[in-house]
Specification:
- This protein has 69 residues and is an alpha+beta fold.
- It contains two helices and five strands.
- The protein has one domain: Nuclear Transport Factor 2, Chain: A (Roll), CATH 3.10.450.
- Helices cover 28% and strands 46% of the residues.
- It is globular and about 30 Å long.
- The two termini are 22 Å apart.
Length: 69
């Protein structure tokens, strides 16, 4: 599935040192995925003892990343 990053997500990922590969890993191997607000979902994953949360919207043929923490 195609992944699209919002400008906000790119900015926050840069500030927090989170790579696109890490975001994709969290989406592929999450500890959990739960519903958030306004149709968003939140995935949480652990990479190298670091917890990463990815806020996203699952649209028909792609995933739009809102932010990563």
């Amino acid at each position: 599935m195609r992944i699209v990053y919002s400008d906000h997500a790119k900015k926050r990922m840069g500030q927090r040192g989170i790579t696109e590969l890490e975001v994709e890993y969290v989406l592929k191997y999450p500890q959990y995925i739960k519903k958030s607000f306004e149709g968003r979902k939140e995935a949480l994953g652990i990479i190298k003892n670091r917890t990463i949360k990815v806020e996203f919207v699952d649209i028909e043929n792609y995933i739009r990343i809102i932010t990563a923490i």
